[in-house]
Amino acid sequence: MIWIALLAIGLAAGILSGMFGIGGGIVIVPALALLLGFSQHTSTGTSLLVFLLPVGILGVLEYYKAGKITTEHLKYAAVIASSLFIGSLIGSKVALSVSEEWVRKGFALLLVLVAVRLWFKA
């Protein structure tokens, strides 16, 4: 079940990345914390692991040394990264097929929904 959730998180992050240029901090971290029950630190560390080579290697090393992510999270990050790859293609095609105004309003709505969810979760 966790593998399906991880694929869905990666696909959603990819689609939203393609549509709005977002991914890790606004999609993957909250999804891991809120949907899968990962701690905030583990969610952040796993999200960085997804983006390891391009942006996160130094941050990942720090989270790994602190014991917040393990080798198991490497598998999780690989699943998210693979579906993020496909999702970004889908999201970019969707975003380019609608008006810029819709994309801007959709992004604003997404930010509000995530902020409200995080506010009441805390």
Structural notes for this entry:
This protein has one domain. The chain is built from 6 helices and no strands. It has helices at 2-20, 24-36, 40-50, 52-65, 71-96, 100-121. The model has no long low-confidence stretch (mean pLDDT 82).
How are the SSEs ordered, and which strands pair?
Layout: H1 2-20, H2 24-36, H3 40-50, H4 52-65, H5 71-96, H6 100-121
Helix pairs in contact: 1-2, 1-5, 2-3, 2-6, 3-4, 3-5
Structural class: mainly alpha
Q: Which percent bin holds the helix content?
A: over 70%
Compressed to H and E, one letter per element, the order equals HHHHHH
Low-confidence stretches: none
Which short descriptors sum up this protein?
122 residues, single chain, mainly alpha, 86% helix
Describe, in short, the structure shown.
With 122 residues, the chain is mostly helical.
